[in-house]
Amino acid sequence: MRQAWAGFSTFPVSPFKSILAGIVAVAMTLCAATGASAAKSAAIVVDANTGKTLFSENADAPRYPASLTKMMTLYLVFEALNSGKLSMSSRVPFSAQAAAEAPTKLGVKAGNSVTVETAIYSLVTRSANDSATALAELIGGSRQNFARMMTAKARRLGMSGTTFQNAHGLPDAAQKTTARDMSVLGIALREHFPQYYKVFSVRSFTYGKTRIANHNRLLGRVAGVDGIKTGYTRASGFNLVSSVSDGDRRIVAVVMGGQSGRSRDARMAELIKKYLPKASTRGGGPLIARGGDSPIAALASAILPKRKAPTPEARPDVIVALSEEEVQEAESQQMAAQETVIEETTAPIVQAYAAVEPAPQPKAAPRPQAEVTVDPISTSSTAPEGWAVQVASSPSEAEAQGFLAKTTKQAPKAVASASPFTVPYVKDGTTYYRARFGGFGSKTAAWDACAALKKKKISCYAVQQ
Asked: Quick one: pLDDT at residue 289?
């Protein structure tokens, strides 16, 4: 064979052969690139109470997120809801670009709109690409700026291996993440926004006359699973992030690069069965997911364009891939829906057009409840960044402020350079207020201040904002 090829290669190279060689080279490159992202599976299991890694396999290797992207879209949406920039009844207009997104999608016509609530449920259940783009345009002003906001938020959460280029997760060679980063985002969604997190456990919702089922097939089938998200493209393989609770134990597990939806789900169920019993029962104390800016994000906000958004590199044309619904429908005729994804934002909200026609509303979509068991970190822009010292927590905001005033009077030197503030959170249906002093530049500074307060018989602990 080698001799034959050697003999063949001695003939003059024709233009056709040159073209053929070029095609082969490109094909090999594309195969290699795809293989680098999806050839090996990646997985991680993290104890959501302590942040300890219970299992890891290629957890820091770059992977394509596919529709897991929409987890960050939702984070930004929840942040806008939490800050009051949006409400569940706010209108989300669909531009021509949003309406033209590839399936799966909700199918809203250009110029029409839906509520934020409907858009959220369409992302969680159907993984609607048109809704993702419409939300991106509403919150970020443009799809490109929203992607920058997503990447900036990823850096603030400590997701150092993640770069976003779009809000829906359709293929983009520059859109990368890791299994570890997805576990961080999964924990952050529940810890920072428990009042909205329950949307991930919704089995289905009704849009117009259509019942749309959640694609996450582990809901209701594996004990303790309460969300979060599936994802698939040819390059990424089958992805899944799951949050699981069993009494006081709680984990977040990630599986990426599965060969099929069934094998991915089976792998996830196996990891849950093995590692959930090994998770800690310790609860309370500082939250695991970071809420403040990392040094990388601080640097990015100083040297890059405004809105704290790293500028992504030029991206190639988007290639439309089969949805997970289409792939699994070929495997099994029982598929009812596809994966979802959502994005979040901190930029000013662009007002919805007043003249758009309202689209059908969901009839039986359960609203997110305020009743939760984990309190969230405040994402208020008024809270000082960095490290803080908490001195009290009270169901009365006035009482919390009173603790701050009393502490300032009792130990003025310890908090002389700090800023007092309160942070609301919800627990068991009741709103409480944390009394904190913020603005400490380092963990050591916050610990030293707390040590000084304890000498004055003032209970406290240091926490990163």
From this structure: 62
- Residue 113's contacts (CB-CB under 8 Å, 6 or more residues apart) are 91, 92, 93, 94, 352, 353, 356, 357, 358, 359
pLDDT at residue number 385: 61
How far apart CA 138 and CA 136 sit, in angstroms, is 5
Q: Which two tokens stand for residue 142?
A: 């443009």
Q: What are phi and psi of 213, to 5 degrees?
A: -90, 150
Q: Where are the alpha helices (DSSP H) in 67-128?
A: 69-83, 96-99, 116-125
Residue 14's alpha-carbon distances to 28, 166, 229, 274, 452, in angstroms, are: 21, 42, 51, 60, 82
**Which residues participate in the annotated binding site for substrate?**
229
Strand ranges, E, within 364-429? 387-394, 419-427
Which residues fall in the annotated binding site? 229
- Taking the alpha carbons of 138, 141, 143, 148 in that order, is the dihedral positive or negative? negative
Residue 102: count other Cβ atoms within 10 Å of its Cβ: 15
Q: Mean pLDDT of successive 10-residue segments in the chain (465 residues)?
A: 39 46 46 46 95 96 96 97 95 97 94 97 95 97 96 94 97 96 96 93 91 89 92 94 93 96 95 96 59 39 33 29 43 34 29 32 39 31 67 84 88 86 78 84 87 89 82
Residue 226 in contact with residue 186, Cβ under 8 Å? Answer: no
Please identify, in words, the CATH class of the domain defined by 387-464. Answer: alpha beta
Per-residue HEC secondary structure of 176-214 comes to EECHHHHHHHHHHHHHHCHHHHHHHHCCEEEECCEEEEC
**So where are the chain's domains?**
38-299, 387-464
- CATH fold, domain 38-299, is Beta-lactamase (3.40.710)
pLDDT of 122 reads 96
- Residues with a catalytic annotation lie at 67, 70, 127
Sheet harboring 387-394: ordered strands across?
419-427, 430-440, 387-394, 461-464
Given this model, what pLDDT does residue 169 score? 96
At residue 158, what are phi and psi to the nearest 5 degrees? 95, 15
Distance CA 66, CA 463 (A): 33
Phi, psi of 194 (to 5 degrees): -65, -25
pLDDT value of position 395? 84
Two tokens at 132?
């993702």
- Which pLDDT value is given to residue 371? 31
Q: Is the peptide bond before 104 cis (omega within 30 degrees of 0)?
A: yes
- Rounded CA separation 240/164 (Å): 18
Which residue type does 447 have? Answer: W
Cα distance between residue 228 and residue 164, in whole Å: 19
